[in-house]
Amino acid sequence: MPDSILTVTDIHKSFGALKASDGISLDLREGEIHALIGPNGAGKSTLIKQIAGGLKPDMGSVHFEGRDVTALSVAQRARLGLARTFQISALAMDFTVLENVVLGAVGQSGGAFRFFKPAMKDTAFLARATDALARVGLDAARDTKTAELSHGQRRQLEVAVALTLTPKAFLMDEPMAGMGAEGSKELTGFLNDLKQEAPILLVEHDMDAVFALADRISVLVYGKIIASGSVEDIRSNPEVRTAYLGEEDAA
Ligand SMILES: Nc1ncnc2c1ncn2[C@@H]1O[C@H](COP(=O)(O)OP(=O)(O)OP(=O)(O)O)[C@@H](O)[C@H]1O
């Protein structure tokens, strides 16, 4: 079995009486896409925030590459190679594609906006940014205004930001949201390649995408993981069908 790069152990988080994370443990292994699914309000975003560092768990730990990162900030975790993409994010629409990669990479690693101009002159950094754009297929658009990109291209641009920081693992929150069928298909192929570079913990509502992409699926309901396994395990699990997939079948 491949090594785990990310391990979440017995995470608890309550908002008042509501247990949004009720003893969650999971891991992310090299080379895989591990999808986290569950109904609205199950606690997926709350978990991702605790893994990324934006929200402090009441109890439990997050280890990244064997190191306890539970007390580290988002920027500190990003610098270690834990990349979060597709949060409602901050692409500057009036900036060019390349400027956004630089801006995003500086910002995610905890740099202030005043580091933006120096970074635009840093040839090594620019080479990494340009390389990242080539990797996501946006090199021809590097001088295009970001506002002119399609929805799917903006998603790819966000991945380019993360790639510039040479990530060791990705946390992705609903990358397929708002994409048409064609865009989803393209992004599915892209993520399938990307996981070879760094494994992906993927929160996604699009079940077709999850079933096409995931190596493993964990199902979260009311803050607890009720099942974890391969696509086939999850598809055929009666508890999952009742708690979650039943909704889809009925639709
Ligand atoms: N900051 C907060 N304060 C109070 N309650 C919160 C807070 N953040 C989340 N919650 C609650 O915690 C529960 C889990 O929310 P969360 O957003 O993690 O679910 P989710 O699985 O990501 O849902 P969705 O699929 O709709 O995005 C919900 O009942 C939500 O209302």
Automatic annotation (TrEMBL):
Name one matching Pfam family: ABC_tran
Which Gene3D superfamilies does UniProt cross-reference here? P-loop containing nucleotide triphosphate hydrolases
Q: What is this protein called?
A: Branched-chain amino acid transport system ATP-binding protein
Sorted keywords for this record are:
ATP-binding, Nucleotide-binding, Transport
Gene Ontology cellular component terms for the protein in this record:
plasma membrane
* Presence of keyword Iron: no
Q: Which InterPro entries would you find in this protein's record?
A: AAA+_ATPase, ABC_AA/LPS_Transport, ABC_transporter-like_ATP-bd, BCA_ABC_TP_C, P-loop_NTPase
The family database entries (PROSITE patterns) matched by this protein are listed as: ABC_TRANSPORTER_2 (PS50893)
Positions of the ABC transporter domain: 6-247
For this chain, one GO molecular function annotation is: ATP hydrolysis activity
Identify the species of origin: Sulfitobacter noctilucicola
The protein's superkingdom reads Bacteria
